[in-house]
Amino acid sequence: MKSARKARRQSGQLALVWRRMRRNRLAIIGMAIILAILLISFSAPYIAPYDPLKQNFRKLLQPVSAEHWFGCDQVGRDIFSRVLYGSAITLRIGVLAIIIGLTCGTCLGMLGGYYGGLVDVGVVYLTDILLAFPGLLLALAVIAVLGSGITSVTLACSFSSIPQFIRVTRGMVLSEKEKDYVTAARSIGENNNAIMFRYILPNCIPALIVLLTLRVAIIILIASGLSFLGFGAQPPSPEWGAMLSEGRMYLQTAPHVAIFPGVAISILVLAFNLLGDGLRDALDPRMKI
Length: 289
Description:
By secondary structure, this protein is mostly helical. The protein has helices at residues 2-22, 25-47, 79-115, 117-131, 135-146, 150-176, 180-187, 192-228, 240-247, 256-283.
């Protein structure tokens, strides 16, 4: 009976959040774009008209046409097919990096905020050190240690996101652990792990969801920037940042080589920002129904 009431309450909260989201048209547009790009990333092998790695030297820098919707690059590869395949690489980097950053940052923030003392001092010092470096510079430092490649870029982007999740989680835990439900949990003999992860963490989830959505956009920009600089995905990988780097030399003669991957990055980042803003408004308990 108790679990049924809890399930109904949670479903009612989700319905309330969805009603708030539906009123924000920009957030719905952002969600639709993300879902569309996600669908494209899974179906790229079936819908791409050409092999993204196949070169055709008879079509070097061919402009946009009915045969090649986005034109061809400097070695005759179809840019439309490469953009479709590149969506999977970009999303994979963003999702894996945000999962690692969320997990590490949330755990450290929970420990520091709940236990306090020397544990909290260590977590705060670590956060301050990481925040002293801009995100891209911190990612470059990690790349310098790990070397270039998609795996290194993923770890570098996740590392740059950890301090943001630490700060948000720690602040929420410091506020929540003083409330009555935590005192009641202690009084019935619940251990610290149960109090942190069964009682306090669920109340931190709304703020973490909003931060997660907004951080994905930043991670995509950092990952694309690293690939643009040559530290991320290596040619001939159809990663958007790497494609943008290859096309920068042809901006005068064949601008389409750089324009389409650049537009793809911009659209995906904008979509995550729109969704993040909508979720922030929908999950804010101070908003009116």
